[in-house]
């Protein structure tokens, strides 16, 4: 998950660059500023973390959180007051 400044033209450019890099690295958007990538092993998760570090923007906050498939399956998803079914969990998931 991340929170990046987008006040200036340059900050917006950095935001787009970072988001594009995440998508190229295999991340998908779960919701605004929250991206996930399936990692089948800890080695793959390490590689994904390294890829994120490689593309870090100069400003803003970025957090990486590892989540198991069991934890992902327990997530509750709401749209307004309505609860929706959670996506099927992969074997392992790394949230960003």
Textual characterization of the structure:
The structure is a single chain. The chain has 96 residues and is an alpha+beta fold. The protein has one domain (2-95). Helices cover 35% and strands 28% of the residues. It has helices at 9-24, 42-54, 69-73, and strands spanning 2-3, 28-31, 34-38, 61-62, 65-68, 77-79, 82-84, 92-95. The strands form three sheets. It has a four-stranded antiparallel beta sheet. Strands 1-4 form a two-stranded antiparallel ribbon. A hairpin with a 2-residue loop joins strand 2 (28-31) and strand 3 (34-38). The longest helix is centred in the N-terminal third of the chain and has 16 residues, at 9-24. The model has no long low-confidence stretch (mean pLDDT 88).
The value of Rg in angstroms is 14 Å
Coarse shape: flat
Order of helices and strands: EHEEHEEHEEE
**% residues in beta strands:** 25-35%
Number of strands: 8
Label the structural class: alpha+beta
Tell me about the biggest sheet? 4 strands, antiparallel
| Helical stretch tally | 3
Fraction of residues in helix: 25-40%
User: Would you identify the regions where 5 or more consecutive residues have pLDDT less than 50?
Assistant: none
> N-to-C terminal Cα separation, in Å?
4 Å
Round the mean pLDDT to the nearest integer and report it.
Answer: 88
Q: What is the topology, as strand order, of the major beta sheet? A: 2-3-8-5
User: Can you tell me the number of structural domains?
Assistant: 1
